[in-house]
Write a structure and sequence with these properties.
Two copies of one chain form a homodimer. In chain A, strand 7 (about 255-260), helix 11 and strand 8 (about 280) form a beta-alpha-beta unit. Chain A has helices at about 10-25, 30-50, 55-65, 75-85, 110, 135-140, 155-170, 180-190, 215-220, 235-250, 265-275, 290-300, 310-325, 335-350, 355-365, 370-380, 400-405, and strands spanning about 90, 125-130, 140-145, 170-175, 195-200, 225, 255-260, 280, 305, 385, 390. Chain A has 17 helices and eleven strands. The interface of A and B includes residues 299, 361 and 369 of A.
Chain lengths: ~400, ~400
């Protein structure tokens, strides 16, 4: 969350964030830390004066600035913002009411999974939006549905059923706009007259691939096209990997329906795992190359949840969605987020008898470590107890509490 | 293991075991406890004199004996044994060298999984065999490959590849002789000129279903037909469920390639889970009813191992097979069995860095509880240590030990 003492949300702040995105790719760790320290205009000043504490960032910025011979980043940013306005695109920054709060959790990735996350997975500095819905509200009840470009008819079928059903039940379907699974997910949501968001790795004025352009036009009308890169930006190869962290972070959970081994979709899922969000994987024929990535994740990740269709996706993200749909929000973010997982763990404790923590983890679709942490808190609060070598609800009281919480 | 002071292995012992199988279905808990207490001839005496401590067993036995008007169970047993000899079938009892020791682990099921195992899952009292290989040796390096009768072409294809490959590499393929997946597994093993064992729910002289009779004849020639029921026994419906525990217990691990929801194959797997044996599940299209049971197990059982083909099956059972192929056996059974799992856990600890216990469990294909227990012992032995919030190999020494163990 931004420091409210800075000029957050001002035109200067917005322009500075656009300029910073031009000086280093989104997600840059050193850049993000500087903005936390000095706010966006202050960081831009520091960069332009060569006050750059990180070597890698310094050489990137100096290369872009070209020794001062090139255009002033501030002017470039202002021109970009004018152009975007003409195109019907707006820029959203963290101090805006429509900022999608979930993406800020990218800031904590390293703490949760040491050594596993690249240095370039920090939260976005700004998000460009084309479409008339408020960004944060649209993403609140959202599920990412992603997968292979070279999808099979099986993958398209399963994706269509899941995405149509999600959109039909009021969930926003988020994907990356690519051919194959991504396009099937967007199209199914459009077919259900639901909302869909394409998270792009290029400018929202020229969504890639152009083969999907009529689909992108429909999305711009009824959903949202979003990007961290300003209008006019090219879909450079590495940007897809940078973009994937936003798909993972902006949604309540991610479903991968088909994925080749070590593909873009599995990279997106690695972010989902690191964020400890519901990571849902659809299995397929072991004879299909497009399911190899899915099966690898199901084999190697105890926190991957195998889902076979819409019902199990809804079961996995459903309770979270209900939580996010509740009005209370704001500075209690940290505490609410904890309650969400605890409530989920509490809900999967059997009404009668007991269950082992690993069973609860499997049912809740949460990592075992998370479940153990939540169980400690729930136990302290007297909402669960250890019985018969497992976790059980206490004889009286807690069940009633749970009922209230579920109904609320 | 039988009490060596009894008349174990004598004709009287064999005949008594045949008679006991006639008086109550195999696996009967009360019967098995009586045999442990009083040996087989002693138990038969007690039953014939009405000294039956268990109510359910007493009414079953009295119904069979029909108030003494029917044939003497001892004579019936002797006649059965003579008839079996003419048919080329032999009876194997626990004191025989060829007794498959693994099935005795059924005796401990209840201790490991309270409340989950029916009372009728006790070890066999005897096993009828048709075929020329020693039973125990044949089952030592064996994998069960089981699944749906109404198999799809996908299931048949995957089953055939796995079973052929196992047989080709010297593993015995065990299955239940049914249409569909079972028959595909047997036939693939026969095609590989490998060994296969059909575990029947009826007499070995009249294997069911008769539609597979030419296959059964080939199995009798090159592999084994085995059953707990004496020659002439009918394949009664409930016997398939009783039989399934032997498939689970006699093998180093079980693969299910296709299974409908709550089917015979999933019941077999419930025994495999309870025995903490490798439980391998092949996923399939979520659109196929014959993969629903597989996906349910993968969702509900953290100790199920998703396998996509032969290589992963061999990886899961391979080390165990190597262990079982080693000469040292006998009374050290308990200790060896512990070493086997510990060695497996040790092998999956990464050479560099650390891994969480749940990752080790996923890699080793073992339940988390088992892994945690083994890790405590390995830690005590100084072979692993806790580092960076995970489990790691110690800087020196242990890696060399591990190398030796792997090579041995």
């Amino acid at each position: 969350v931004e420091d409210p003492t800075g000029p957050a949300g001002s035109d200067e702040d917005r322009a500075a964030r656009v300029a910073l995105t031009w000086l280093a790719e989104p997600g840059n760790r050193a850049m993000w830390s500087m903005v936390q320290e000095s706010d966006a205009p202050g960081t831009l000043d520091r960069l332009l004066h060569g006050d750059i504490p990180d070597d890698k960032l310094r050489s990137a910025v100096l290369a872009r600035l070209g020794g001062g011979r090139l255009v002033d980043p501030r002017r470039l940013a202002e021109a970009t913002m004018r152009r975007a306005k003409r195109l019907g695109a707006r820029i959203v920054v963290p101090s805006d009411a429509e900022w999608p709060r979930r993406v800020d959790e990218l800031a904590t990735l390293e703490l949760d999974a040491p050594g596993r996350i690249s240095q370039d997975a920090r939260p976005p500095l700004c998000i460009w939006v084309r479409g008339r819905w408020p960004l944060g509200e649209t993403l609140e009840r959202s599920v990412a549905v992603v997968g292979a470009r070279a999808a099979t008819s099986y993958g398209i079928q399963v994706t269509t059923e899941i995405a149509f059903g999600l959109a039909d039940r009021g969930w926003t379907v988020v994907s990356g706009g690519a051919f194959g699974i991504d396009a099937a997910a967007h199209r199914a949501a459009l077919a259900a007259d639901g909302r869909t968001v394409a998270v792009l790795a290029c400018g929202v004025d020229r969504p890639y691939p152009s083969g999907n352009s009529s689909m992108f036009e429909k999305i711009a009308e009824t959903g949202l096209l979003i990007s961290e890169w300003p209008p006019g930006s090219e879909p450079l190869r590495h940007r897809f990997l940078v973009r994937n962290r936003v798909i993972a972070a902006a949604t309540a959970g991610t479903v991968v329906t088909e994925a080749a081994a070590r593909s873009g979709a599995t990279q997106t899922m690695s972010r989902v795992f690191a964020l400890q969000r519901p990571a849902m994987v659809v299995p397929g024929p072991v004879t299909s190359a497009m399911s190899v990535g899915c099966h690898e994740m199901l084999r190697s990740r105890p926190d991957a949840t195998l889902v076979t269709g819409l019902e199990q996706v809804l079961e996995t993200v459903g309770r979270m969605g209900e939580y996010y749909a509740e009005p209370a929000r704001g500075p209690e973010h940290q505490r609410d987020s904890l309650d969400e997982e605890s409530a989920l763990v509490l809900e999967v404790v059997p009404a009668a008898g007991s269950a082992a923590p690993e069973e609860l983890a499997a049912r809740a679709g949460l990592p075992l470590r998370t479940v153990l942490r939540r169980l400690s808190l729930l136990e302290l609060a007297g909402l669960v107890e250890r019985r018969d070598g497992g976790i059980a609800l206490p004889p009286f009281g807690a069940a009633a509490d749970r009922g209230t919480e579920t109904a609320g």
